Amino acid sequence: MSGEANKYDASQIQVLEGWEAVRKRPGMYIGSTGERGLLHMVFEVADRAVNEVLAGHASCVDVTLTPDGGVRVADDGRGVRIDEAGASGISGLEALLTRFQTGPGTGGRHDVTLGFCGVGPFVVNALSSRMTAEVRRGGARWVQEYARGVAVTPLTEAGTSTGSGTTITFWPDADIFEAAEFSFDGLAERFRELALLNKGLEISLTDQRRPGESRAARFRYPDGARDFVTLLDEPEETPVHQHIIGFEREDPRMAGTVEVALRWRDSQEERIRSFANSRPTFGGTHERGFRDGAAAAVTAYARKQGQLTTADPDLEGDRIGEGLTAVVSVKLDHPEFEGPIRDLLGNAAVRVCIEEAVQQHLGRWLEEYPERAAAVIGRIINGVRRA
């Protein structure tokens, strides 16, 4: 083959922008074109609605799987802006639905990102055969329609409205997605988890896809992480202590808050779930701090009660987990994620802050409930000595 035929230069590079790039490689933006990707489509649209509730501007989010294969996400918040967004010359609504977001929200601890990487509803629009948007704001109702990422009608006033809010409905493009459908259980799992981690959040999920077989669920948990521990524990398991230990604390050293709940069960299985800004994590400084703090509290109390002698070494953080169910949730202004899929929390200050908080609170609980403490400590020490 000649040198000319092997020549490769910039003229051969194809640059795709906007909706074309999304439709060319959808997996880069939502993870897959199967069931997982469909779930993330819902999460990317629900992001903004959820944050309206958490900011105190709305009371609930309603998600509906419609009979014609679409998904409707509605809230009773302020309504997306319909005036021009900056120098773009288009409305705030159209900018939201036709422009990339820069990534996870900038609200720090007060902002939740449900989707694959916080790319926003524009990606959903680009991967949908059709999308409709309704905004109720300032006493008026406004509507606009889109197809495959492009507005096909102008933003039009369509009557009056007595309330405010935003409703976005989309239909995934059958040319892109495999023969898969939205998983009600998959959506319910994430929405339940989100409501457990945010006490003021209410989300409803309704499935209308099959006539006569409608399903519905409502998620709202006033006790937060304590409710989470209750749900994680199996009904047939016997708690070592009925009372769920829990606390919340803000610490300026880590620029954020921590919520912890825990209980030991008569089981050998450890269940520790950790989250950062409502995002599931698989370890990191918050989980390490929790383990170290719990081990320090248990060690100090056991030595005081004579259950550990001076010859016994201190208990380590990895040795207190047998039968333990715990939820550790931090909300940080500046989270630092590590790992190939950003599932490890790396903020160094978090470990120290949580270790101190857990040691203090658990240590106080052990002192206040000596009978329960004896059962917990005895179980842990017997497990360590058996190992």
What key attributes describe this structure?
single chain, 387 residues, alpha+beta, Heat Shock Protein 90, Ribosomal Protein S5, domain 2, 9-stranded mixed sheet, 5-stranded mixed sheet, 33% helix
Structural overview:
This protein is α+β, with helices and mostly antiparallel strands and 387 residues long. The chain folds into two domains: 18-219, 2-Layer Sandwich (Heat Shock Protein 90), CATH 3.30.565; 225-386, Ribosomal Protein S5, domain 2 (2-Layer Sandwich). Helix content is 33%, strand content 24%. The protein has helices spanning 3-6, 18-24, 27-30, 35-54, 92-98, 121-126, 184-197, 225-232, 285-304, 348-368, 370-386; strands at residues 61-65, 71-75, 128-137, 140-147, 150-151, 156-160, 165-172, 203-207, 215-219, 245-251, 256-264, 271-276, 279-281, 324-332, 337-338, 344-345. The strands form three sheets. Strands 1, 2, 3, 4, 5, 6, 7, 8 and 9 form a nine-stranded mixed β-sheet that branches. A five-stranded mixed β-sheet has the order 10-11-14-12-13, sandwiched between helices. Strand 8 and strand 9 (215-219) form a beta hairpin. Helix 9 (285-304) packs parallel to helix 10 (348-368) and helix 10 packs across helix 11 (370-386). The longest helix is centred in the last third of the chain and has 21 residues, at 348-368. The radius of gyration is 25 Å and the shape is elongated.
Total domains: 2
Helix and strand content put the structural class at alpha+beta
Task: Estimate the strand proportion.
Answer: 15-25%
Rg: 25 Å
The count of helical stretches stands at 11
Mean pLDDT: 90
According to DSSP, the number of beta strands is 16
How far from one another are the termini? 67 Å
Q: In sequence order, what are the helices and strands, one letter per element?
A: HHHHEEHHEEEEEHEEHEEEEHEEEHH
Here the CATH topology of the largest domain equals Heat Shock Protein 90
